[in-house]
Amino acid sequence: MPFTGKILLVDDEPHVRKYIGLLARGLGSPVIIEAANGEEALARYAEESPDLVLLDVNLPGMDGVQILSAILAQDPDAVVVMLTSLANRQTIEECLRLGAASYIRKDTPKEAIFAELSAVVSENLGKP
User: Fold this and answer.
1) Which of 32, 82, 106, 113 is most deeply packed, by most CB within 10 A?
2) Is residue 1 part of a domain?
3) Mean pLDDT for back-to-back runs of 10 residues, the chain (128 residues)
4) 7-25: b or e for each residue (b if 16 or more CB lie within 10 Å)?
5) How many structural domains compose the chain?
6) Per-residue pLDDT, 88
């Protein structure tokens, strides 16, 4: 069954949002909601109640770890996948400890990114 929920995609780089958004659309017919920074991400989360959040670790101002903590404080059942290009292992482990469902390196081949997104949706939202 195709995924038709809402995905909040948070990244400060428009080309990354476009690329990850295209891959996420392969899950079915999700509604993609974009945010370029932490404040916007938290506002959009509160407005839209997305099913899945794809969250960059390295953002200007409020970083992904702070945003993750704020989202999970608001909604402990939130499904958040961290996106990273430069984050160190310690940061990723902290995100997973805080409650992130998974993480994806942005330089991962697109087939593997899609496979991880599919697995997260299937495991956490009950859909393939």
Assistant:
1) 82
2) no
3) 92 96 95 97 97 95 95 96 84 92 94 95 81
4) bbbbbbeeebbeebbebbe
5) 1
6) 75
Report if residue 35 sits inside a domain.
Answer: yes
Examine residue 39 and state whether it is found in any structural domain, yes or no: yes
- Its domain, for residue 22, covers 6-125
**CATH number for 118:** 3.40.50.2300
Quick one: pLDDT at residue 34?
Answer: 98
Question: What pLDDT shows up at residue 127?
Answer: 57
